[in-house]
Amino acid sequence: MDIPRISLARLPTPITSLERLSKELGGPRIWIKRDDLTECAASGNKLRKLEFSVGEAQNQQATVLITSGGVQSNHCRATAIVAARLGMKCHLILRGKPYNNLDGNLLLDYLAGTSVTFATAEQFKTPDRLYADIEAEYRVLGERPFSIPIGASDEIGLWGYIECARELKCDFERLEIEPDFVISAAGSGGTMGGLIVGNALHELDTNIVAFNVCEDEAWFQHKISRDIQSWTRRYNQELADQPINILDGYVGPGYGRADPHVYETISRVARTEGIILDPVYTGKAFDAFLQELANGRFRHASDIVFLHTGGIFGLFPHRDHFPTAQFTNETTPQP
Ligand SMILES: Cc1ncc(COP(=O)(O)O)c(C=O)c1O
User: Fold this and answer.
1) Domains of the chain: which residue ranges?
2) Model confidence, pTM
3) Could you confirm whether domain 15-44+155-326 is CATH 2.30.42.10?
4) What is the DSSP track for 87-131?
5) 73 catalytic residue (yes or no)
6) pLDDT value, residue 325
7) Which of 43, 53, 73, 153 is catalytic?
8) Which residues surround ligand 1 with Cβ inside 6 Å?
């Protein structure tokens, strides 16, 4: 199949075991697939999807990429940086209010020279209209806009994690492991959808599980099965129904907000393994994973892979949630 793709991510990403944490927990061997290392400023899971979305945009001779997300969207930041790198324009539709202080992903959006429209949650309920208006503005200017949906989660972006499943298959063979679960955060569902299709296509023989960081299980069941259906239609593929294992109940105070134990888990993983998670996606999902582990859900597993989907820049606007006592003043050596 000839699918337009450009090379953006540094692949394959490493996979390593969290030996100290696994020992501390006394449970299965936990592995981490480092998709936070797909790049530097453009890092994270979105870069795998953008290889295909922007590949299609270039195939259509687009000059402007339009996409949307929260004010601190990792996907928007990655798209903005990719556009600048390719000499394209970028226009972001961000849900929320303009910040007084540029921080985290938003700072990088502006540095990459992107144009921004801020939209209310109400306006975001009909994103097609927002996209259509902005597309029209660019057409008047003689540009060729290409719209990428939130999170690049559609039948084109799905290829990013279908291909990641192929990569995981090689990882597992090389390491001689047969992980029972591959776990990730779900935000717009494209990562999980791609992994589900890839699991079937490349015979990964594992269980794909995701913790939703927004919405609820029913929303993700619907969204992911719709994306997979669109993928089978567009690329003329046959695929038997696949399970969509969403573990709901860990959204906490809402999207982009986290309970104190999520921040504690982020600190614990950073201290124990030198791995940096974020409170919106990876830290929230990893914290949920640890809770499920403690409750015995994964007790029969020998190896579990946690997919680190990136998001480091989203950590900085949350700086006030970390207890400063442990960082300020001089500290003494710990036993
Ligand atoms: C860092 C990070 N992890 C996970 C996700 C979830 O991925 P998806 O939107 O494909 O469900 C996102 C984006 O939503 C993200 O930015």
Assistant:
1) 15-44+155-326, 46-152
2) 0.97
3) no
4) T-EEEEEEES---SS--HHHHHHHHTT-EEEEE-TTGGGSHHHHH
5) yes
6) 57
7) 73
8) 44-45, 74-75, 151, 153, 185-192, 281-282, 309-311
